[in-house]
Amino acid sequence: MTDSTIWWLLAGALVALELLTGTFYLLMLALGLSAGALAAHLGGGIPAQLVTAAVIGSAAVVALYRSKRRVPGEPSVRSLRSVNLDIGETVNVDTWQPDGTSTVKYRGAQWTVVRAPNTEPLSGVYQVTELVGNRLVVIKV
């Protein structure tokens, strides 16, 4: 069995494993193994094949990782009005505690309110943007 055949079989095995797991990282590694197979077809020795497979596979994994980091994530399910009807409702906050929380009466019960990032601790009307556990995350209206 030639070197290129071994590389192609390994690449095919990684593609099959990727289909079972659903991760694209194994597909990127299979791309590196395919590059090793091409290096074998071009007559490169074992060290050249290994280096080619390692460099191409690693570069593909790094490129995929960086491209996924640039894409903003989906909004939290906790902040969708279609999931939680409290989103968008307003509450009146009289005072804030030093730890950035407050207690308000909302829907006939006492709720703990937490300020969203970059929200000033002023008294007044706030809008619910997210529900985290039993805490309402709010922004100033």
User: Biggest β-sheet: count, sense, barrel?
Assistant: 5 strands, mixed
Structural class: alpha+beta
Classify the helix fraction into a percent range: 40-55%
Shape category? rod-shaped
**Helix count, per DSSP?**
3
Notes on the protein architecture:
The protein is α+β, with helices and mostly antiparallel strands and 141 residues long. It has 2 domains: 3-70, no CATH class; 77-140, Nucleic acid-binding proteins (OB fold (Dihydrolipoamide Acetyltransferase, E2P)). Helices cover 43% and strands 23% of the residues. It contains 3 helices and 5 strands; from the N terminus they run H-H-H-E-E-E-E-E. It has helices at 3-21, 25-41, 46-70; strands spanning 90-93, 101-106, 109-115, 124-132, 135-140. The chain has a 5-stranded mixed β-sheet with strand order 1-4-5-3-2, with no helix packed on it. A hairpin with a 2-residue loop joins strand 4 (124-132) and strand 5. Helix 2 runs antiparallel to helix 3 (46-70). The protein is rod-shaped. The N and C termini lie far apart (71 Å). The model has no long low-confidence stretch (mean pLDDT 91).
Summarize the structure.
It is built from three helices and five strands; from the N terminus they run αααβββββ. With 141 residues, the chain is α+β, with helices and mostly antiparallel strands. Helix content is 43%, strand content 23%.
